[in-house]
Amino acid sequence: SLFTLDDWLVGTILYFIWSILYFGYLLFYKARKEEYKNMQMLALNTEAELKNLRSQLNPHFMFNAMNSIRALVDEDPEQSKKAITQLSNVLRNALIHSKKNLITLKEEMNLVEDYLSLEKIRYEERLKVIKRIEPECLVILVPPLLIQTITENAIKHGISKLINGGVITYEIKVVDDYLSIIISNTGKINSSEVSETGIGVQNTIKRLRLIYGNDATFNLRQVGNEVKTELLLLLKK
């Protein structure tokens, strides 16, 4: 039998609907494929930028550590020998950890402790350290050299400029869904030195943005005779 006009209309409508669904699927598939490709590119770019930032930290870290040794060589040769041993430990651990995106807070604080031991040889009683760290925080992951970089700045731009030295205080705890890190040091923020601290502070801010996005905050401010660095890092579920 011949197709009626109604049959042709129904067939045309069905074909039209099928075409819309088919080409809609193709467009959706292509869009998802492009989105996945863009996400891959973004991940690669992020990883490359993180590696670049980490590579900047290594020579910066080594330069500051070597500076500490140089200051001791003429003043106290015996102490400088001890400092060289400390330096080898610090640099070895720094190089191992800096190749990773995240390490435990315990690993980071061990590195900070090594670095402080080196600086205490140089500053002796002028450098005092107070640590208030909740034990459960030690297993939380953080970017390597995060706290150590802030410690460097605290000593270089704070403690070292004071005749009687000063105190560095670490207060680390969990607040709601965030890891709260507050590092205070005796001293003043000098706006003329902001560029000098750039590779440390600006690098830290960039790394936090790349790893945490909007889930991390960084704040540097003057409170009385102390400089406070405050960080909030969203805990990964």
- As laid out across the biggest beta sheet, the strand order is 2-4-5-7-6
Spatial separation of the terminal alpha carbons: 66 Å
The largest sheet is: 5 strands, mixed
Order of helices and strands: HHEHEEHEEHEE
Mean pLDDT: 79
**Number of beta strands:** 7
> What amount of the residues lies in strands?
15-25%
Rg, rounded, reads: 27 Å
Spans where pLDDT lies below 50 across 5 or more residues: none
* Helical coverage, percent range: 55-70%
What's the shape? elongated
- What class would the helix/strand composition place it in? alpha+beta
Figure out the total of helices: 5
In words, what does this structure look like?
By secondary structure, the chain is of the alpha+beta class. The protein is built from five helices and seven strands. It has helices at 5-75, 77-97, 105-123, 146-157, 198-212; strands at 103-104, 127-133, 141-142, 166-175, 178-186, 216-223, 226-234. The strands form two sheets. It has a five-stranded mixed β-sheet, covered by helices on one side. A two-stranded antiparallel ribbon has the order 1-3. Helix 1 (5-75) runs antiparallel to helix 5 and helix 2 runs antiparallel to helix 3 (105-123). It is elongated, with a radius of gyration of 27 Å. The protein starts with a helix and ends with a strand.
Short key terms for the protein model shown above:
58% helix; elongated; alpha+beta; 237 residues; five-stranded mixed sheet
